[in-house]
Amino acid sequence: MGIAIISGVVASLQSKDNAHIIPKWESHTPGTSTPTADSPDPSLPSFFIATVSRQESAKKLRHTFGLLGGLGASVQVLVGENLAAVQRSDIVILCCKPHQAQTILGENGMKEALDGKLLISILAGVTISQLTSWVLPTTKVVRAMPNTPCRIREGMTVVSPLPTLSNSEETELDRSIILKIFSSIGRCRFLEEKHFDACTALSGSGPAFACIFLEAMADGGVMMGLPRAEALELAAQTLQGAARMALQVGAHPAQIKDSVTTPGGCTIAGLLAMEDGKIRSTIARAIQIATEHASQLGQPTKK
Ligand SMILES: NC(=O)C1=CN([C@@H]2O[C@H](COP(=O)(O)OP(=O)(O)OC[C@H]3O[C@@H](n4cnc5c(N)ncnc54)[C@H](OP(=O)(O)O)[C@@H]3O)[C@@H](O)[C@H]2O)C=CC1
Ligand SMILES: O=C(O)[C@@H]1CCC=N1
C-alpha cells in the first residue's frame, strides 16, 4: 500500500495537469515531506524516503520507483533505518502490518524523532488511542484509510480529524497538506474515527470485493463464448461507467438500474437471477464481516 501511495503522488507530481502545483522543494516519506527554504508551496511532498526491513523488498521498491523515472528519482529506499528516515522527515506515513506498529514506534529514539511531527497511520484496526500511547503527546496522530487504486490516482482515502491544537493555523496547514497528498491520488474525505472499521471494509478492502464481481461478470461472458480478454474489458469498462454515473451525475444506483431495465427485457431476467442468489445480502454481509474483522486487527489478541 505504501508503494501505491508514493507511486500515485509521484505520478501526480509528474502530471501536466498539476504543473501549477509542482513545488520546487525537497521532501521525504513514507515517509515524509520537508519543503526547502524557497519552496513556494509547503503543502505537497516531492522527495520521499521509503523504509523496509528486507533487502529483497528494497530491490523491488527501487525497481518500481526507478520505472517511474523523472521525479521517481526523488524516492530514496532505506533498509532497517526507520529512525534515520523519521529524523529527516516532517510527515511520516506508517504503512506496516497492524501488529508491527508498537515495535516500530517503540524503537529507541523514535518518540523523540516524531516529536511535533505529523504521523499518518494507514493501519487497519489500530486506534488513535493506541497510537498516541506509543508516541509523545506532541506528535500529531491521524489515521488514514486509503485503497490500492491510489496507485493510478483513482483511490479513495478516508482521514480521521486532526487533533485539536492551540495553534489553529498549524492544524489548518496540516489539514491542507493531508488533503493535497491524498487528493492528488484520488478522492479524500475526513470522517470520524468511529467509522474507520466500516471504511476499512468498504473502500480499503473494496477493490478486492469489486474484482470478484468483475471476474464473475467476465466469466459469464466467457461462458457465453466471448474471448476472455474482451469479456474482461467489457466488464471493467461497464463497472467503471456505472460507478462514474453514480459519482459524477449523482444518480442513485436504483435509478441507473431502472433506466437499463426494459420491461420484459433481458436485464430484468438477469436481475431476478441475481436476487435469487441473494447477491445483495451476500455483498452487504461481506462488508459487515470484514468490518468486524478489521476492528480486531492490531489488537493484542490478533496478529
Ligand atoms: N493492502 C491494502 O489494500 C491496504 C492496506 N492497508 C494497511 O496497510 C498496511 C500494509 O498493508 P500491505 O501494504 O497490504 O502489507 P505489505 O506486507 O505489503 O507491506 C508492509 C510493508 O511494511 C514493511 N515493513 C515491515 N516491517 C518493517 C520494519 N520493521 N521496518 C520498515 N518496514 C517494515 C514491509 O517491508 P519488508 O517486507 O521488507 O519488511 C512492507 O513493505 C496494513 O497495516 C494494512 O492494514 C490499508 C488500506 C489498504
Ligand atoms: O486486508 C487488510 O487487512 C487490508 C486492510 C484493508 C485492505 N487490506
UniProtKB/TrEMBL annotation:
Keywords: Amino-acid biosynthesis, NADP, Oxidoreductase, Proline biosynthesis. NADPH binds at residue 82. The keyword Oxidoreductase applies. The keyword Isomerase does not apply. This is Pyrroline-5-carboxylate reductase. It is an enzyme of class 1 (oxidoreductase). GO terms for biological process: L-proline biosynthetic process. Residues 193-297 form the Pyrroline-5-carboxylate reductase dimerisation domain. It comes from Boletus reticuloceps. It catalyses: L-proline + NADP(+) = (S)-1-pyrroline-5-carboxylate + NADPH + 2 H(+). GO terms for molecular function: pyrroline-5-carboxylate reductase activity. It comes from the Eukaryota. InterPro entries: 6-PGluconate_DH-like_C_sf, NAD(P)-bd_dom_sf, P5C_Rdtase_cat_N, P5CR-like_CS, P5CR_dimer, Pyrroline-COOH_reductase. HAMAP family: P5C_reductase (MF_01925). Its EC number is 1.5.1.2. Residues 48-125 form the Pyrroline-5-carboxylate reductase catalytic N-terminal domain. Pathway: Amino-acid biosynthesis; L-proline biosynthesis; L-proline from L-glutamate 5-semialdehyde: step 1/1. Belongs to the pyrroline-5-carboxylate reductase family. The lineage of its organism: Eukaryota, Fungi, Dikarya, Basidiomycota, Agaricomycotina. PANTHER family: PYRROLINE-5-CARBOXYLATE REDUCTASE, PYRROLINE-5-CARBOXYLATE REDUCTASE 3.
